[in-house]
Structure prediction request, 378 residues.
Amino acid sequence: MAYTKRSNPLLIVAGLGLLAGLYGVFEALVYRTEPTGLGSYVPWGLGVALYLLFLGLSAGGLLVNCLVYILGKKELDRIAGVVTYATLLTEVCAGIAIALDLGHWERMYRFIVSPSLTSPMFWMLIFFNAVLLVYAIKALAIVTNNQPLARLCSLVSIPVSLCFYATNGYFFSIITSHPAWSGAFTTIWFVLAALLSGGGLVTALAWFSQDESEVTLRLGRTLAVLLACFLIFEWLYFSAGYRGGRPDIAAALTAMLTGQAAWSFWLLHIGLGLFLPLALLLVGRNSPAAVAWAGLCIVAGFLAYRYAFVVAPQSVPMLPGLDKAWQDPRLTLTYTPTLGEWLLTLWVFSLGLAGFVVGPRLFPRLFSRPAWLQPLAR
Prediction:
């Protein structure tokens, strides 16, 4: 996003969001998870959904690197800088979201001092930091015009990023207490969802930030393929879940489709996040602006998808009658985010928006074509 006077309103919005969200940050740091709507039966809520959203958005770097270095779409390297910046920024937002949601974020050092090599969570942390490190070095390489190093980082980032997104999916896939999450299918679906949402973000950035019409259209065609694959996977997920004959899985899926947050699933995820961008990509496939808006719609709809995937399965008791065995406000299967959780979410979103707005001023070389492509510049 070129830093012009047009960026000022977005910066004001981001600033107001950061100010308003400070209470949510304060509450998370001081009172931890105590004031949240979470409980013993529903321990994961809006914070985990927010983490998964930004985690997926960071996969734009993986998508572009695969297209450039595996499929030979060299023209996409023009946006290497802004994609690298977006990956780093969204990774940081994801890290903040999950750290504040943990309650005792200061204990995260124990992953390192007393590691459990068989724990997926340990490997999530390792790969999370590995992705950050690789992209930080790549950003430095782009800024210093070190093309060989940038290329090496891009190649290394592909397997490292795949491991990171797959590990997050694997973490959910082995939680057998919530069968709607478990299964090998979940790991593949997580990687696909990350590529789709991250692809939506970099497609929007290619047009709104870089004004790269050819790159935007190229990414739009990739986005259409990913969107079609995601729709097929989502249909398989619900179809197999209902036809498999497991009452607990069927109940979890029904909770997604007709439960408390069903409106957001249908309107934001299905309507805004899947079918509207699909229509834009089909009807406006030759229009960079339409393709870019399709990318933004996918990004906007993914929070509802992540929320439904995380919260709805927890509304089904892990044991029949568990919700009636003891009576306590924390022993309930319903979950409603509190004001503090929403404010914390607003703060993280505002941080991301502010990062994208001020990025061109702070790191101008990342928001222009890499120096080794300058002879091809417009």
Observations:
- The chain has a mean pLDDT of 92.
